[in-house]
Design brief:
283 residues, alpha/beta, Rossmann fold, five-stranded parallel sheet, 5 strands, 10% strand
């Protein structure tokens, strides 16, 4: 691992293998717990792999509070099983800790808690608030040069964009041309009980970010060959102003009977479904 950039460089095949492993860990975690947001955790997998293994700078599992590290905020905090699996895979804590997911006293609660688990930069769970926290972090990076001009990545759900606070934060950052902030939208097209609909189509979401003064583009969210360079470009571009990347994804990606199905928004697989899912994702 390079001390300068703090990421693990890997071939395309190695990144794909990590994505398969991440899906396996997510399924193991939610099945064992009997609860969890399976669909949205599976849709964010490649985004997390790209960030934690190639894009985030100066992250160090041995020093999770390193002051010049890039920050990551899971604004869609209910998809914590995906984030916890990524942190375990990256070495922040043993994979065995996932076995206590959402149990009383576990550091891995259903929503990320920065006071309990290493690698969590802000506690999340109430939808719509993550971007505001990210804007605050970006302002801090500007005001305190000793922090090294870190970048802050905020992962939002497409359904979450219906929260007005998201656009209040977006307007503020856009009006300031605030550097250092990157919004990534997990645009899987499905929310709690229905599709998100045409008003939240990827291109329309990208247009909305532009209207608020952000640089914005759409990327294939499960294609690591496209996603890694897009995230790297967003990180670089954020040096001169806010950047939004809309990732076109699939709810429940990798498991045929979960893909695009709203019933898997907040449901864990039973024993039979788990066995079928593991047979499909491998890992």
């Amino acid at each position: 691992m390079s001390e300068q950039i703090g990421v693990l460089q890997g071939s395309a095949g190695e990144l794909e293998a990590r994505a398969r492993r991440l899906r396996r860990l997510i399924l193991d975690t939610v099945h064992r717990a009997g609860m969890g947001h399976t669909g949205g955790s599976l849709s964010e997998v490649e985004i997390l792999v790209a960030l934690y293994f190639r894009v985030l700078r100066n992250i160090d599992p041995g020093r999770p509070e390193r002051p010049d590290r890039d920050r990551f905020i899971l604004s869609k905090g209910h998809a914590s099983a995906g984030l916890y699996a990524a942190l375990a895979l990256r070495g922040y804590f043993p994979e065995s800790l996932l076995e206590g997911y959402d149990e009383l006293g576990s550091p891995l609660q259903a929503h990320p808690d920065m006071g309990r688990a290493p690698g969590i930069d802000i506690s999340t769970g109430s939808l719509g608030q993550g971007l505001s926290c990210g804007v605050g972090m970006a302002l801090a990076a500007q005001l305190r040069p000793e922090l090294g001009g870190f970048r802050t990545f905020v992962l939002l759900g497409d359904g979450e964009l219906q929260e007005g606070q998201v656009w209040e934060a977006a307007e503020y950052a856009g009006a300031l041309r605030l550097p250092g902030i990157i919004a990534v939208v997990d645009c899987n097209g499905v929310q709690l009980s229905a599709p998100t609909g045409p008003s939240l189509a990827p291109e329309r979401i990208a247009d909305r970010w532009r209207a608020f003064g952000w640089e914005s583009s759409v990327v294939a969210g499960h294609d690591l060959g496209a996603l890694v360079p897009a995230l790297e470009a967003a990180r670089h571009g954020a040096g001169s102003g806010p950047v939004a990347l809309v990732a076109r994804t699939v709810k429940g990606r990798g498991v045929s009977f979960m893909e695009g199905r709203c019933e898997w928004h907040g449901k864990a697989p039973n024993d039979e479904e788990y066995a079928r899912a593991i047979g499909e994702v491998g890992g």
